[in-house]
Amino acid sequence: MRIAIATTQVPFVQGGAEIHAQSLQHALEQAGHEAEIVAIPFKWYPPEQIMDHLLACRLLDLSESCGDRIDRVIGLKFPAYHVQHPHKTLWVLHQYRSAFDLWGLDDCDLAHFPQGREIAEAIRTTEDHLLQEAQGLYANSQNVAHRLERFCHRHAEPLYHPPRHADRIYTREAEDYLFFPSRLNALKRQSLVVKALAHTKEPVQVRFAGAPEGPEIMQQLLDLAERYRVSDRITWMGRVSDAEMLEGYARSRGVIFTPVDEDYGYITLEAFLAHKPVITCTDSGGPLEFVRHRENGWVADPTAESLALGLDELWREKAWTREAGERAHQTYHELNINWPHVISKLLA
Amino acid sequence: MRTPLNWFSPLPAHRTDIANYTARVLPALIEEGPVTLWSDLNADHTALRGAEVRQFHGLDLPWPPLNYQSPSIYQVGNDGRFHRQIVEVALRQPGVLVLHDLGVHDLLRFYCLEGDGPGKEAYIQLVRRYAGNLAAQEARETLKGERPVEDVVPRYPMFEWLTTGAWGVIVHNPENLDRVAASTRAPVWAAPLPYWPQDRLHPVQPPRAAPQGRRRLLLFGFLHSANRRLQPILEALATFPRRDELELTLAGEYPDAEAMPRHLQEMGLSEIVHVRGFLSEGDLRAELDAADLVLNLRWPSLGEASGTLLRVWDHARPALVTRTAFYATLPEEVVAFVDPKDEQAELHRHFSRLLDEPAYYARMGEAGRAYLERHHTAEAFARGLRAFREEAAAFGRIAYPEKWGESIARRHLARLPATTHPAMIRRLSEVIEGCYPLQ
């Protein structure tokens, strides 16, 4: 089959979504299909631009290329997944969240514009209408599926996929640190971990791997660590290579991942593949689909005090932590997370 | 649920009847839920009890709460001094417009041409968009001084400039309903002009039992506009044979106030016309209680409903009105009509009848008061507004698609050669229509 993967690309910005599209393309090719990523530029400000970009997507013709039919479109991101095609399947990474779950919260960018409500309403109305066009509707996580159900009353089957380095992830004997790999930003909530360290009874050490989203974020975290007198228990690794990342997982005692309502979160699955338990929070979204409290990880309330209990537990109870890591690895394999399964569903 | 209400309006410290309107309905609005009054004009608003009063500057507003709460209510009248900043907000954050004047051309000129407004070309373009090429040509001539503004403004009310983007429009003149509804797909409500809540109505004073000296006429309010008929009224009085049996009080603001005494002298009216200027609330109430007939003419009509008429009825006093627009829809027993085509003779007829048959006008005043209580209480308006806000919010879900194509055409297609526009816009319209459920 000739398959177009319709996604959105913010020019010069690379992240998990781009990796996801590339991984899907690779998997389709492995399965014997011809696959192409059709990435449409996206800009979300001022808010009218969002609707203009949706219109741009609607104006595109992906039914054929150079006289040859394009058999299928797989749509990943708003508004690219609204391109018109007679055989379209959506595998939703996330909707335009400011119009849905972020609406009413501090992180909602739309609400800061006078026309924000008007555009949010327009996104909701058009999304609701255009989702009907898809022959198949999948979400990349239960969390995203729940949002589709809650806001658009559409049932989407969650379809998990392996993280990019799944076949290269390995494990080693645990060393004395907990590992938190992620870009440094407010939504990933590294600051909560810094505060939690001040409440731990054990001498917990944490390594943060990831580049800050702006110099001010880095400075804020450094100042916070200083204020809470935990600087000597933290290592800021900055941007790391893939090899360093994999080693970071492999040699850690456990992995910390405490974002706010993450869509999916490769971190959890990568940790499980490295035989490591994961500490997360009750409001972290995607990780909660995999982490079971006291079985393959720890689920804390999103407070410094509650999180500190989990950090102490993983640090103190070495044997339990090792067993929880084994159970985490087992969890991953029970979930049937592999590309052939994903492809068979998307092309069904 | 008691939904917060954001209400943009001039406030009573500002000399406009729309400010008084806000003060009148406020107690009933507060009964429905918390109210925030937004005004760009600085003044002491301590008299507005029960509401939060917030001043805003330009577009410096806390947008998140305004986005999250139900659509804001914008009071729009034709006076740019009081409504320019409100319109600035309303054009960017759609909500419910209360269109007090159908004719907002003066406001449009003020908005475009005064201060840091968008300028002459923007004015011409807006006139072209909503009134056509001929109107744009005439508007351009006013800018060059080749045509009087008064020649153009009444013929092109320009309310479409505001109603096309609104989520809901309220008019208080039922005559305007169809015209406004034709300009927008948003819901339009012809709401009876609200007055005070029932418990705030004026205690009715009995009409003066017997003639004592002269019968008293009253003309009050904002008399700047020629359509309030100040000069024709003075002329009618000056030519009325029994004029010495009448006296007229002028209360309010009117043009060329300094020249008025000499003007009255020249007309021979110094003895019977009393110029009181802008009165305190208490003094105005006393004048209304003392009046035998209130002159409340409008010609030509600017499509407004009359708050001054409600004040007259509140005091159970009779009013002369022009048989036009909103006034023409009123029952015969609650107002006395003046045919604008024969205005002088009609005024003389009413002056004579007042002198000969004062009880006829006294009964009319009482009927007016009963009509007010039946149709115009603030409570009825506040209840209706609650439902209308929900209707407007529902329209908001498809409001942007409604203007999507035009919005794109304005922002992007203007850069393309003019010859490409029609096809592009047609194509865009078709694609846009496919993006949302058609109603």
Residue-averaged pLDDT of chain A, rounded?
A: 95
Helicity of chain A, as a percent range? 25-40%
CATH architecture of the largest domain in chain B: 3-Layer(aba) Sandwich
Strand arrangement within the widest β-sheet of chain A reads 2-1-5-6-7-8
Question: From the structure provided, what is the oligomeric state, counting identical versus distinct chains?
Answer: heterodimer
CATH names the topology of the largest domain in chain B as: Rossmann fold
- Category by helix and strand content of chain A: alpha/beta
So, the CATH homologous superfamily of the largest domain in chain B?
A: Glycogen Phosphorylase B
Structure, explained:
Chain A is 37% helix and 18% strand. In chain A, helix 6 links the parallel strand 10 and strand 11 (234-238). Chain A has 348 residues and is an alpha/beta fold. The model of chain A has no long low-confidence stretch (mean pLDDT 95). Chain A has helices at 16-30, 48-59, 116-130, 142-152, 190-197, 215-227, 242-251, 266-273, 304-316, 318-334, 339-346; strands spanning 2-9, 34-41, 64-65, 68-69, 72-77, 88-94, 136-139, 157-158, 178-181, 206-209, 234-238, 254-256, 278-281, 297-300. Chain A is globular, with a radius of gyration of 21 Å. In chain A, strands 2-1-5-6-7-8 form a six-stranded parallel beta sheet. Chain A has two domains: 2-159, Rossmann fold; 166-334, Rossmann fold (3-Layer(aba) Sandwich), CATH 3.40.50. In chain B, helix 13 (307-314) packs across helix 16. Chain B has two domains: 5-104 and 159-196 and 379-403, Rossmann fold; 198-375, Rossmann fold (3-Layer(aba) Sandwich). Chain B is globular, with a radius of gyration of 23 Å. A seven-stranded parallel beta sheet of chain B has the order 3-2-1-4-5-6-7, with helices on both faces. With 439 residues, chain B is of the alpha/beta class. Chain B is built from 18 helices and 13 strands. In chain B, helix 1 (17-32) links the parallel strand 1 and strand 2 (35-39). The two termini of chain B are 28 Å apart. Chain A binds chain B through residues 48, 51-52, 54-55, 58-59, 82, 103-104, 108, 110-122, 124-126, 129-130, and chain B through 59, 61, 63-64, 66-68, 89, 92-94, 396-401, 404, 407-408, 411-412, 427-428, 431-432, 434-437.
